[in-house]
## 1
Amino acid sequence: VADKRVLRYIRRFLKAGIQEDGVYRASDRGTPQGGVISPLLANLYLHYTLDLWFQRRFQPGCTGSVRLIRYADDYVACFKREADAKRFRIEMEKRLGLFGLEIAPEKTRILAFGPMAQQWAKEQGRRKAETFDFLGFTHYCTTSRNGKWFRVGRKTISRRLSAKLKVFKEWLRANRTLPTAEIMRTTANKLRGHYAYYGVSGNSRSISNFAYQVELILFKWLGRRGKRGSLKFEKFRLLRQRFPLPPPRIQVNLW
């Protein structure tokens, strides 16, 4: 990085310290978990330690098409031959070790994925091909509507969906005394943000389920603001008409 302004900001982030439960402590190593500086440093570091190495050193020795898809410190490597995938696992760990980096064993595995994966799974006595999680989505093998072409299916990771619903429930419980208009407006913004990220091709069922669960939580906690049973479903329906929530909609076509 040659831009002195970027270097100055990086130094400031690394020296900023950490504040937990109102208590400040200095940081002399690493970056705070979840800090905005982490993705930037991951991109800078892994561009040289991984991306260029993969492109210039490892890829030329592979058979058929290969690809590395990386976002910050998460990445997926695709190979035509299983032997290349196994060799990548070994050499990649050695390469990262040269720079003091380690992989997370529990998040790293080799699996068959692609047009032939479903057939191989059946030959091995398994009902479905393996899936993998990446960037908030569970990726699975599927086909086009006519069944002729292979497609990569994506759906929201189930535990991620549950976690987001839990966060919304906690927010609503803590803010249920706010004016109804503000609660509905904020809920609408949260739904739009969810659709903007998770509204990709093939994920309509997951985002529809999220919207449905959000409405159930709204109905429950808004009903607790008055007397028991004061908010009937018919009254809640009228409330929804007055303060409409955005319907689940696919935002990005990946097919």
## 2
Amino acid sequence: MPERFPPEFLRLHLRPLAEMAAEPPQVAAYRAFYGLEFPGAEARMGLFPAAGYQIVAQAWWPAEPRGTLLLQHGYYDHVGLYRHLISWALQLGFAVLACDLPGHGLSSGPRASIGDFAEYQQVLEGLLAQAATLGLPAPWHLCGQSTGGAILIDYLLHGSVRAEVAETVLLAPLVRPRAWGWSKLSYQLLRPFVSSIPRRFSANSTDPAFLDFVQRDPLQPLILPTAWVGALARWVPRIEAAPGRPRRPLIVQGQADMTVDWRHNLEVLGAKFAEPELLLLSEARHHLANESETLRRRYLDFLRERLV
């Protein structure tokens, strides 16, 4: 399957996202493989530069969009895994704009790595600029899963939030990962000797079909770079020391999440923001964007009431 849409080939043949241009045939194969074909919606894939990377972004429009959802995916993920959220947003009448982070999916960069989390902010600013260039309708709602949530937290705490931005949805947001003390110690011990360690796939969803698909996904990174852990180690104290802001994000968190230190994270977010609205799901694990249909329905109903 990878040879049907190799990232380097697609980037070479893609045009800037803002341009109307014919797409290479591999884009159709990509959309079919990941279930990103949405009847009645216009779709586009293209590039924009940010932080020294070539970022691959995708946009979808319903016939008469009444707002926009901007998606930020999680670590190891890419836009191809977010069909449930994209379909839901389109059904609500929102346009959708999303991109693969550096080192993920179809975007350029060392696999699953980053030099500094500040680079993620440059990518987010680039994505927001693309939304403006494309004329995507306000309000713009932001939604981030895990590391995508971390990027949005940083933006709300330190960025100049654009006037078009309305609600921010944080799905299992990352502040600290689970067992963070041990992870930092391991990083200090391993950094002089190795640049990465093999990735361990976890059962981060109650949906067995998703867990099986991820194992076969050709765009999944198979390593954990020590550079990414180092960037995270520098980012965590920046967020935990940040002054609060009068924003009220919507937070969805699974209580069976074994990926992030969610109790600590919720305490931090409760102190940083003005009474964030929280939905706890006792059975849900970490990958809320690909949880079971029953669990997805519960939090999507919660969000629908707040985004319409």
## 3
Amino acid sequence: MPASKNLSPGLVRLCVVALIAGVIIGFIGGGFRWCLSHLDRWRADMLDWVNTLPGPGWLIPIVVTAAGAIAAAAIVRAMPLASGSGIQHVEAVQRGEASPPPLLLLPAKFVGGLIAIGAGLVLGREGPTVHMGAAVGAAAARQAGLDDRDAREMQTSVGGAGLAVAFSAPIGGALFVLEEVAKSARMRIVIPTLVAVAAAVACSRLVIGDGSDFHVGAVDPPSIVLLPVFIVFGLVTGVMGGVYSRMILGALDLVARFDHVPVVVKAGIAGAIIGALLAIDPLTAGGGDTVAQKVLDGGGLALPLVAALFLIRFIAGPLSYAAATPGGLFAPLLALGALWGMLFAALTDAVLPGQQPPLTVAMAIVGMSALFGAVVRAPVTGVVLVMEMTATTTVTVPMLAATAAAVLVAQLVGSPPIYDLLRERMLASGIDSSAAPSSADDGPDTGRNT
């Protein structure tokens, strides 16, 4: 009892700080999503306009995306910590391996993320919102005079609120903190996280409205007889997740080899390639929400196109991340999982024809969760995140079975969690919140893209 009494005042103080920081990141994250939605519509209108132009109108998306990548990379040169997802930095801070992010990271991540993702790079919005949330949490902790340990956990809690805002998934955001970042369920992190997430999502909905991210019709639960099919699907997805993680690291290593080429030039080349894909088909690039929604609509895409989109985005995602601009991995990963699920459903129907109900939508939802689990190695977060984003619970049992199988296989094949690998790269590069631009930033790139 005395221990509880001693804990309570400090816990109340943490909750007050979490509430204030949650409100702030809720409006900032909501504004970020609102701006991205308008940029997505602008990009679609631009591509429609390009298709009406005579001559080499396809050069326009190439130039626009390359320019966006260059501009975002230039922001990263001024604030190296803004590179990539930022989740690896949040984890490093939580572990005491790096300093909490400065508040100056917020505008760099906000503007850089809008430019890079809005231009069409295959990046997710959750990376910037998580990192911005961490910056807000760290700043709030400093203002409240919290000690170092509580300050680290506050940046983690509010970072989880940023993820919740990115996907309108409050439970998923909270689980992300407990399962992936803190790997702990102590009251001093659980309660502030719940407070920050609740405040952030409530405020973000004032900006972007209510409702789940994906609109999914009624999905009948697959027959329990087909559970082995979903387990096999998960096993194969685990191997695929390991390959995708290696693709991300391979792309980073490849870009880093050209250390004599300035980072903005490399970003421009990557942007030009993605822009060329956009000129061919808008679904080949961008964060992936439109692709996932079309799959979840059930049959809106022809199978040859689905296969092509899967292969292209499997490569374009790592390429975009290697450009070292602000942006995350989650959203493209979810779209890739949906495409993979649709392909496997078609294969299942060829082997076991006449399945009722059709498995397309159910397998796509399960694919989103299973691939997420295999790459990120946070299976419970993946399952709950997808359930909240799709507002669907009828495929929970297949999701659990397939995601568990995927994570097991990824573990057995020796594929470490992607953010462990990215955190190690970041620490080896010397980038943390104290990193400041130096005279070397005016010369060739030093291979610091994380």
## 4
Amino acid sequence: MRIFHCTACAHPIFFEHVQCERCGSALGFISETGEMSAFTDEGTNRWKAHNSADDKFYRPCHNYAIEHVCNWMVPSASDDRYCESCRLTSIIPNLRAPRRKHYWSRLEAAKRRLLYTLSVLQLRVETRQQNPATGLQFEFRESRANTIVTTGHKDGLITMNIAEADDMRRERVRIALGEPYRTLLGHFRHEIGHYYFDRLVAGTEHLRSFRTLFGDERKDYGDALDFHYHNGAPADWGKAYVSAYATMHPWEDWAETWSHYLHMVDTVGTASACGIRIESRDLTAPYSIDRPASRLPSFESLIEQWCPLTYAMNSLNRSLGMPDPYPFTLAPAAVKKLEFVHYVIDTAG
């Protein structure tokens, strides 16, 4: 994630902000350009981006102007009420129930961060209107007495249990399942990994390499799920996987590795935007990459930044008496899987 500044006064702002804390300007994100901008409301749903050289006007997304759970803009000439992110959500929580609007807001905020990273990686997002069979769609549902909602993906439909937006509930589940890392954004990144497996790997020239690294995805998923929850992950899972859950099935190994790769790209990008760069010669990485000469060097650069950066992140947190933000150790086999994800994304881009 890059660092944004208010275009009216140059004050640093966050991706989620709707108002500049210094000058009070209304803020909005323009998805076509990837820019956060200060806006002037010129009336009749015509908002002008501050310091813009063109004559293009925008208006706030309906969920920005009315519901206050968004900060993206829509071109004023568009017939769409919703921004590119909100158009992907087909079912939202019952807003009459307590805290449901808060959960919805958190879900949409995490989804917007996901979409920003996908845009940076030049990964195409098809909507249901563009591709009714497999276009991307999100449903934010709630479990009830006779209906249990499971977070998951199927044919482009990503269902999120809104309970994942409840920090206390999510932390209890994280501890109960022995997961060192469980976040709302992580769920989005994991599920979108399943979506892009179908788009970028299944039925392509990448499938043979995938099976060599991750295993045969034709293995019965239901049997693998039952085995995992009855027996748990192998004790030595860290030798080849980024997480214990990744051992369950090749599809889950891919989705966990994909999610981890997006964590790395976004964190290293944010560190770079903040002017933070820790040379790997100061903190030597615990492994080397045996990479074919035909591969692009950008993944090696990512790893060279990632290892010392996570050491610094963990050290800073320990100085504050906080848990490690990165409680992982990447084995060489897991690194090769991450490199494969990078290669697939780079090819698609």
